[in-house]
């Protein structure tokens, strides 16, 4: 968690995607729910430590998305945080213009 906070603090213009992972046990619906809960928990922890909620997107990933994850033993019960590139200035100004 500390390393993610360090990267996010050093790059305040970059958003991040928090991916919660889950194995196949319990079925597809349960796996997606657990993965989403993991991602939300990490996002909430980052927000409680000072990262703006608007910079974070939480998503669920289950073993059904990837053959590599399906084959993992023990099942994948992790969270991955991907720090995304900052929006280009042209994109940012385009978002604020009205037609």
Order of the strands making up the biggest sheet: 2-1-3
Structural class per helix/strand content? alpha+beta
Number of helices: 4
CATH architecture: 2-Layer Sandwich
Key words describing this protein structure:
three-stranded mixed β-sheet, 44% helix, alpha+beta
Describe the structure.
- The longest helix has 22 residues, at 27-48.
- This protein has a single domain, classed as 60s Ribosomal Protein L30, Chain: A, CATH 3.30.1330.60.
- With 99 residues, it is an alpha+beta fold.
- It has helices at 2-10, 27-48, 67-71, 89-96; strands at residues 16-22, 56-62, 79-83.
- The radius of gyration is 16 Å and the shape is elongated.
- The mean pLDDT is 83.
What is shown here, in short?
This protein is α+β, with helices and mostly antiparallel strands.
Helices and strands, with pairings:
Elements: H1 2-10, E1 16-22, H2 27-48, E2 56-62, H3 67-71, E3 79-83, H4 89-96
